[in-house]
Amino acid sequence: MRRRLDAAAPGRLTDAVRLITRHAFEVVADLRPTPQELEALLQFLTDVGYATDARRQEWVLLADVLGMTDSVTSTHLPDRPGITPATLPGPFYRPDAPLVPLGADLCRDGCGRPLEVAGTLCGPAGQPVPGALVEVWHANAVGRYENQDPDSQPEFNLRGRFHADRQGRFHFRTIRPAGYALPDDGPVGALARQLGLSLQRPAHIHFAVTAPGYRRLVTAVFDGSDPAIERDALFAVRPGMIGTIRPQGGGFALEVALVLDPEPPFPEPETSEG
C-alpha cells in the first residue's frame, strides 16, 4: 500500500491517506486485532452511517465526542485576545431556520421559563457591526433540540435567524435552556459509555454571525451556573463564552456581547513593468 501511495498524485488527499494508513498499520501491529474485532470496527462505522440522516448527524457527533472538531477549530480559528472564541456548531445545527424580526419569540410551543436575550455585535475596536445576520439555536427546558425530538416539538422550535439593527444590537425572546447528555441511543453514545467518557453538556445557546468584512463567527454562550461547565463532553467551553443568566420579572435575562474578527485584507495584486 505504501508503494502504491508513493506513486499517487501529490496533494493534501494523498498526504492525508498516507498518514492515516501509516498510523492505522501501526495500530494493527501494536494491537494485533482479530478478524472479529476488525469486523466489529467496520460494523461500528456502518452503524454511524445508518444513524445519520437529514435530522441527525452521527458523524459530526463522533468527531465532536473524540475532540477532533474542537481541535481543528482551535487550530484554524485560535483564540485571539479581545475576539469572541469560536466553537463547533454541533450536530443539531440547521441552516434553514426561518428569518424572524428582532424581538421575536423563538419558543413555538410555550414550554419553559421565559428568557429575554439582548446582544451587541462589534469589531475589536468597539465599532458596531450593523445589519449582521444572526442565527440562534438551542435545546429546550429538558435539554432536547427540536430536530432530535420531532414528535414532541414543533418544527424550528427554539431556532431563528434575524438581522442586527444599525447599531449592531439584537434581541429576542425564548426560554431558558437546560443542560443535557449527548444522545446515547446511537453507536457514538454506546462507544462513549464503553469508554467511560462524559456525555454531559452544560446549558448553552448557539450563535452564528455573518457580516461583510468579518470572519463568520460560530460560538456559544454557556450558563455559568451549570454544574457541568467543567466537564463539557465536547471540550468547547472557553472563559470568554460563559454568561450570566439572571432573574428578571417572572423569568430570566441574558446579555451577550460578541466581538467579531475582521477578515484580513486581500493582498495587492503583483504588477510587472516593461
TrEMBL record:
Q: Name the Pfam families on file.
A: Dioxygenase_C (PF00775), Dioxygenase_N (PF04444)
Q: Which family does it belong to?
A: Belongs to the intradiol ring-cleavage dioxygenase family.
Q: Which residues form the Intradiol ring-cleavage dioxygenases domain?
A: 117-145
Asked if the keyword Cell membrane belongs to this entry, the reply reads no
Cofactor(s) the record lists:
Fe(3+)
Q: Return the InterPro entries for the record.
A: Catechol_dOase_N, Intradiol_dOase_C, Intradiol_dOase_core, Intradiol_RC_Dioxygenase
Which species is this UniProt entry from?
Rhodobacter calidifons
UniProt keywords (A-Z) are: Dioxygenase, Iron, Metal-binding, Oxidoreductase
For whether the record's keyword set contains Oxidoreductase, the answer is yes
Top-rank taxon of the source lineage equals Bacteria
Q: What is this protein called?
A: 6-chlorohydroxyquinol-1,2-dioxygenase
